[in-house]
Amino acid sequence: MVNTILMFNSIVAAATFFLLPTLGEIYAERSGILNLGIEGMIIASAAFSYAIAYSTQNVWLGVLFGMLLGAVLSAIHAIVSITFTRTQVVSGIGLTILGTGLSGILGRGVVGKAIDTLENVNIPILSEIPYIGEIFFEHPIIVYISYLLVPICWFILYKTRIGILIRSVGENPEAAYNQGINVNLIRYLCVIFGGMMSGLGGAYLSLGYLNFWSEGITQGRGWIVIALVVVALWNPLGAFLGSYVFGAFDVMQYYFQLLLPTPVLKMAPHLSTILFLAIWGIILSGKKVKSIVGAPTALAVPFEKS
Amino acid sequence: MKIYGTEIYFQKRIDPITGIKAVFVRISFLLLGLGVAGLIFLFNGINPIQAYYDMIQVNLLLIPNTIARFIPLLAIGIGLAVPFKTRVDNIGAEGQYIIGMLTAAGTAFLFPDLPAIILIPLMFINSFILGAIWAIPVVLFRAKGGFQGADVVVSFLLVFPALYLMEWLVSDPWRDPETGFTYSSLLPVNARIPKIPGTPIYISIFLVLAIALLIYYYLFRTVNGIPKTKLGYEINVLGKNPLAGRVAGMSFFKVILITMTFSGGMAAIAGVGEVAGNSLRLGVKSQGYGFTGIAVAYLGGLNPLGIIVSALFFAALKVGGLALTGIPSTVLQLFSGIVIFFVLLSEFFFRFTIKSRKLS
Amino acid sequence: MELVLEMKEICKTFYGDGIVVKANDHVNFTLRKGEIHALLGENGAGKSTLVNALFFPPDSGVILINRKEVDLDNPLTAIKDYKLAIARQDLSKSLIERHTVAENILSFSEGFFLSITEIEREIKKALQKFDLGDINPKAKVWKLSGGEKQRVEILKALITNPDILILDEPTAMLTPPEIKSLFNLLYQLKSKGVSIVVITHHLEEAINFSDRITVLRHGKVVETLETEKMRDHRGNENESIRYLASLMVGKDVLYNLHRETIHSGSIVVEIKDAIVNNDMGDTVVLGINLKLKANSILGLAGISGNGQRELIEGLFRWRNLESGKIIIRGKDITNKSINEVRKLGVAYIPEDRQKALVFDLSVRDNLMLNSYKLSPSFFINYSEIVSETEALIKQYNIKATSPLSPVRSLSGGNRQKVVVAREFSLRKGKDLILIAENPTFGLDVGTTQFVREELLRKRAEGAAILLVSSDLTEILSLCDEIAVIYKGKIMGVLTREEATRENIGLMMGGANLSSSKEVLA
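^ inputs. structure came back:
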């Protein structure tokens, strides 16, 4: 019999891995910068945070350094795309390749070495609610941070001045620039925030979710984040929904191996995203809909100050 | 940017750097990149000078290995250069490459008794076709995409079905019954690409070099500014200004369909070369040539002639990696990533220059 | 009268893409308190660059506000500290289409939180106060008409209660009554002490509404004059217009064009009941019927933004028709591809040079854009193309270092010559159908003369030409028949003899043929 509570608990754990970088990339893309280097940042941070946690025997220091590495790596992409206005697609791919390459070197000392990783923290009162409590409130602290980040990210993006500035920069950087908005600064901040969130995701992967490090530990799941941003329609609330759906796909692989061939389950997130995009493409043949919802207009378009 | 009373700013060059000058600039940036990689080695307790020295030594000893890796990298690089020129980035080449490997192996397993002279070309043809098909969704999304960037997302998303398919095939139907490990049986003898008699070089090198030179001659080369073929001209125009091309009556869709299917086919051919030449069986992981290929194409300046040199360089890096004991195989990706960044930066300097002026 | 703004020795040079352009060459400009100062000049004279110097630092020069030197290094300083405001000409660089009107007017929000409802309230108040009509602050900008967008842009500038107001071509998309109320508004502001700069290329506006006029040409100030004094000196409006035009252009501009009287030939192109939507899905061409005849030039006059662009795009199949038919040489091409239309001999000179030239490629590459496909096989006919392109360069006197020079290294006039050379040579004689969209826009006098002569020459050779232009002089001097478009409909078609500036002007503003005749009778 399938222990549903355990399964749903695993889904939350898996979803958090997707959710954190997605929130970050939403901010980056809302400001107009496409960062395809997420997989690289995640895996490099996973290795680095594990290595730091091992050598300092302090898990939280590991998490911190993971986030820092994410910030630094994303800054490289930011410099090349924003200041040097190079093509964001290729720069992002370069970052992924670089990050994957780095992960091997950074983690080579701690492959297979066990350390005390993040413990589950049961939130008092909330974790005692039947079903819900065990599913949502018996996780490492990072998961709870992700719960809080969703409404915060949503609020900042839609209800604050900085949010409308970010969205303006991603829609029409020229217009924003002419009103005195520092387009490049906002883009840098958003991309680096995205990098920190990917770093956090990577640290969570090795220190809170899978609890070990070895090469290729992400199994390419970082790529899904980019698709998730689209499925989320660039909205933090959508990110929450999408992450949990994809988290479910990820976990179900193990539970339904007997019902469906493994490769089909593994491909489910990718194929369903392609289907989603295809349906979207057909619906969006009328340009009117495109004006209501969709990618930020200036996404991946280099901005040159005139 | 303002520092200490001086303003540093970028200024567009009146005449961008091109031609031989550009090659020199690109090489200098490459050397800078290698320097940065050396620094990364240093920070991780590896002696960069020793490392580079060992890498060169290994290459001199194992030239055939270098050439063996050169062939698939060249194939992918050429394949990528063509659509890149139309500004359609085929970043899912890895997926098409895997499909190529699968199709080749599948064809071989299905017809193990065909004579090599029929079987091997059949493998190439089948792989080309399936690789090309694997690239078509990207074209559809680019032409009819609902939003900007859908084609990029679809492009890499398609890598995973290919990868998982391969994983499943080697774990189950094609698993080697003799050893029971998760790789496929060895390819039948007739399916293995022969070498040039007396040398350790696979004859597929002729195929790939021929394609590279043909592509150069018919699509890239210009005499007095005029390309040889209409397609070459259309690729040029649509890559630089698709708007003007379409107003003139060009079909963007037709051109990207042709270039992307070619690209998918070439990536697949690289896969054939790899599985029927180097490894002789399917494994769970791929060599990652699909992504390295992007670095190869860019370092080569998106030009077949440059890509031939660039592919050699990356093949040498890959083989050199063998010398670096204690460094995981991901080191090739480290180099690829760094190279990509530095080549991108070099392109910036083709168009812009840095100036400073004092502020009052 | 105190000087509220002084700009001294302003210099700004643009680099890149093959040219070095001195957009502002030691320009001196002053603005008195409470005056309306018109800034006149042809396209590329440097007007927008000059006012931009108030928001982004120029290369050199000094700016004084209220007699004190200021350092305006970014737009916020100008807007917040010195109460400057600008309504720009190119709205795509100023308004965010996907956001609402309120979300576009960000100058209001301070602090961390965004209170959209408060901003919407302020906008409604300001719309009333400035008599800018009825616009819903919650409306998305992409849904607004051209005129409404322009009013939003003006509102954006006014809502900050500026001391110095700059309007860059504010009347481009306004109807005559809207223009009137705009200038009324400006007079009111004037009386409250606001100092205003109006950039325009409409000479009549400058003469009738301004206190002073500064004329720029090629980045330099030609003259700054007192409007009333000039009017008195010159006698009547026409003379004043002539004088200003000559200042703008540099010499007494009389285009001597040889125009033969030719009988127009058979109908070559027929547009029947065409209905076309724009990118946003709004119907902007509401049932247009037009006929193009051989040996004749049909002019399409109208204020830009009234559907001409979409009509042309429908004609050469860049855009689908919602309904209606297009028949070229007897063939119904309503659903054919652009390529097929081109094969029927349709040449097109777009207003947007981006649609006509590939700047990174060579002159030769651009000249062969139509002819490269003439050879039957996959290959390009090398020798044919070489001789053809060399002939064109000679015939049209295209000044370039070599046929291989990139087009971006050519001057504006020579670039247009490349387009003209290519399109005009698409077919010979009666086989040519030409659509020309503002073909002399932004060109120097010599090239303008050249292009107009070429149009007449092709007409004499048998071509059927559709000339879309917002330059009435051009329309009046070249066309055999003139159709006037207003809000997607043809107000009327005038013959050359019937057409005058006045009746065309009235029709451009919405009057139809009969009522304009009444008005002018």
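The mean pLDDT of chain A is 88. The CA atoms of residues 36 and 162 of chain A lie 24 Å apart.
thumbs up if we can close this ticket
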